[in-house]
Amino acid sequence: MLKFLIFLMILVGSSFFLTDVYSLEVEFQKESERIMDSMGWLEPEKIPYQEQIQIIIDHAGEKNRITVGMLSKDPTDLRFPEYIEDIMIEPRIISFLLTNDFACAPNQIERACVIIDVEREGLGDNIVDIRNNTREITDKVVGDGVILFSAEFDSVSLQPITNSDGEKVFVSRAVYTINKPSTSSLFGAISSMIISSDIRNSGGFYDHATELAKNDFSAFTISLLPQGESMLRAMHVSLTCSDKLQQFVRCPENVTEQIANGEISPLDFIEVENISKSKFFGDKFLPLNSVIQVSILSEQDLEVKSVNTHLIEKLQNIGDLQNNGWVFSETDHKVDGRYIFGQDTSVSKSELVFSFGPNTGAPIEVRDVKEVKEGGGCLIATAAFGSELAPQIQLLREIRDGTVLQTESGSAFMTGFNQFYYSFSPAVADYERENPTFKGAVKITLTPLLTSLTLLQYADIDSESEMLGYGIGVMLLNIGMYFIGPAILIIKIKKRI
Q1: Are the CB atoms for 489 and 496 separated by under 8 Å?
Q2: Do the Cβ atoms of 338 and 295 come closer than 8 Å?
Q3: Which tens digit of pLDDT belongs to each residue from 372-412?
Q4: What separation in angstroms does the CA of 484 have from each of 346, 471, 477, 480?
Q5: Distance of alpha carbon 121 from alpha carbon 118, whole angstroms
Q6: What is the DSSP letter of 89?
Q7: What is the pLDDT of residues 406-417, one digit of tens each?
Q8: I need a labelling partner for 183 at 20 to 30 A (CA). Which of 38, 275, 379, 380 fits?
Q9: Using an 8 Å Cβ cutoff, are 61 and 256 in contact?
Q10: Where exactly are the structural domains of the chain?
């Protein structure tokens, strides 16, 4: 139960105050113009609008949280009603938030919430004074309603938060409840009211937020956080999925199995094959304005084992931002990875895949992206067994790399086979993901093939003739199992009928 409550607090905190990606700070070494010119580096431009995808994974498999967010400090990007924007006038207000997240008001789970945090200092020494003084401040914000809703006071409580300096402080949190519309209706109404048409019509992560909002279990959040002389405005759509807890929607196909096998494919969480940055950014060099973040929480000490794309060892100068790639940080019981687009405008699902496992101190393996894109694995088998790290897929890869490709005849066979195989396998793999029954049938069908291929692991192949001999033998064996055997069985059955 304690673990559940801790994880729920992390999920709620991430949903409400997802600003760490926005404020992704890179301590660049100062580069002179001469060095930048000689290296051919582009200097990042700056615009306030940013888009994010954050995935929080519970390694134990209880819950995973997917959040898509749009943030900006420019009121022309995200514009709230003036009476809400005016919270900047009251310096003691730390944040304003409206959400329909599950149980945002624990005593009224059927209601949505308006949550306002106020600085604790100066509110009084007892709970009655704190409550009254907090309401005196927050009632001015919600007294005449909030956007489309009338708000009813629920509670005031003292809550710990982590401030911008990384310090834990207590705030006075006022909670008001409002009617709870669906996320789809909230997102449709409020996004058209708050987010500029230029952003809404530019695709990017906004389109994925729109799709996520259609899920009946998704949650909607808008927030404002005063930051000195400016205001951070944000809109998020989140979905918590679980294959174990009934109050949440089931996770997308393959996600749970992949995590169990130590593999993360971020785009499987939103069920797309590739993702592109918003066209709102045009041709500007904005490497930090589109970020995909994955955090893995675990009771074990974990590390990243491999990545399918460029690895950024450390963000310390402008040169580190020129290429797309993952940058990771690892602490006790947590792995945190952020994918940066660099000069690229899109990325495929296979490029974002990375693997993790128990911490051994080993360096991260960077897999060949070209291999991954151009036939690095069996698409049909991967879809059937759920992960590129499944034992069956590892077996196929070992036989291909360690045996077949070691001879000229084997390499020639794989070249011709790949041209044929990849002409239809993507469609079959997609259908497997959409149809669990078909996926199960494919898995059963592949079992005899995998069994026969294990024979090659025990064969001593030292010449072209031996490769041809064993290869033809395995092919004949499979023809017998898949075609001749069933044909003989059917003929015998027909004779008896």
Answers
A1: no
A2: no
A3: 444 445 667 777 776 665 677 767 777 776 677 677 777 77
A4: 47, 18, 10, 5
A5: 9
A6: G
A7: 777 777 777 677
A8: 275
A9: yes
A10: 1-75+196-367, 79-194, 375-496
pLDDT of residue 388: 62
What separation, in Å, do the N-terminal and C-terminal C-alpha atoms of the chain show? Answer: 61
Per DSSP, the three-state class of 40 is coil
Residue type, 341: F
Structure tokens at 143: 């007294």
Q: How is residue 114 written in tokens?
A: 């308006």
| Percentage with pLDDT > 70 across the chain | 80
| Measured distance CA(108)–CA(93) in Å, rounded | 24
In total, the chain counts a number of residues equal to 497
Q: Is the dihedral of CA 337, 340, 346, 347 positive or negative?
A: negative
**The whole model's pTM is what?**
0.71
One-character DSSP codes across 296-318: EE-SS-EEEEEESS-B-----SG
* Whole-angstrom distance, CA of residue 178 vs CA of residue 191: 18
Q: How many CB atoms lie within 10 A of CB 152?
A: 14
Give the C-alpha separation, 435 to 456, whole Å. Answer: 32
3-state secondary structure of 361: coil
| pLDDT in the model for residue 6 | 38
Q: Residue 18 pLDDT more than 60?
A: no
Calpha distance 102→82 (Å, rounded): 28
| Closest by Cα among 46, 45, 19 to 231 | 19
Distance in angstroms (rounded) separating the CA atoms of residues 137 and 96: 12
* Sequence-distant (≥ 6) Cβ neighbours of residue 195 within 8 angstroms: 70, 77, 78, 206, 235
Could you give the dihedral angle defined by the CA atoms of residues 264, 266, 271 and 275, in that order, rounded to the nearest 10 degrees?
A: -140
